[in-house]
């Protein structure tokens, strides 16, 4: 069975856990994206959302800084001491709107520990029209809701 980003987003989710908000760097134990930690300035807030889909554990690192109009929701599949980055849904004021960087292949082919590479596509393309242009993240709750909605994270029958 091939498992790709589209199947993960559409799949039923279970064991959803939303972590607490923190400031500054993200420890490797929380989201192993870097060699030691994912360095963010102290003005950035972050939390990790965990869930299971298709019998695989996933994590979403939600990063925001409303005053700078920056947001990221990074979906990854942990594997031993690293992680496969499958998608980064983001907004930053210096680009024309909401977009994602998505690994379009099956997850087994996505290399561990890399967020960008030839397997990743920007959707929509950098020079294409962006349908969603307004920055709507104003607090922790709106950031979590954006990540949950984008990745289809909702237990069947629940009202998150």
Indicate the structural class. Answer: mainly beta
Number of H- or I-type helical stretches: 2
Give me the count of strands.
10
- The quaternary state of the protein chains shown equals single chain
How many discrete structural domains? 1
Shape, principal axes of CA atoms: globular
* CA-atom Rg in angstroms: 15 Å
Summarize the biggest pleated sheet. Answer: 8 strands, antiparallel
Low-confidence stretches: none
Order of helices and strands: HEEEEEEEEEEH
Mean pLDDT: 87
The helix content, as a percent range, equals 10-25%
Residue fraction in strands: 35-45%
Secondary structure: elements and pairs:
Blueprint: H1 5-10, E1 14-18, E2 22-23, E3 26-27, E4 37-38, E5 45-53, E6 56-65, E7 70-79, E8 82-92, E9 99-103, E10 120-123, H2 140-150
Antiparallel strand pairs: 1-5, 2-5, 3-4, 5-6, 6-7, 7-8, 8-9, 9-10
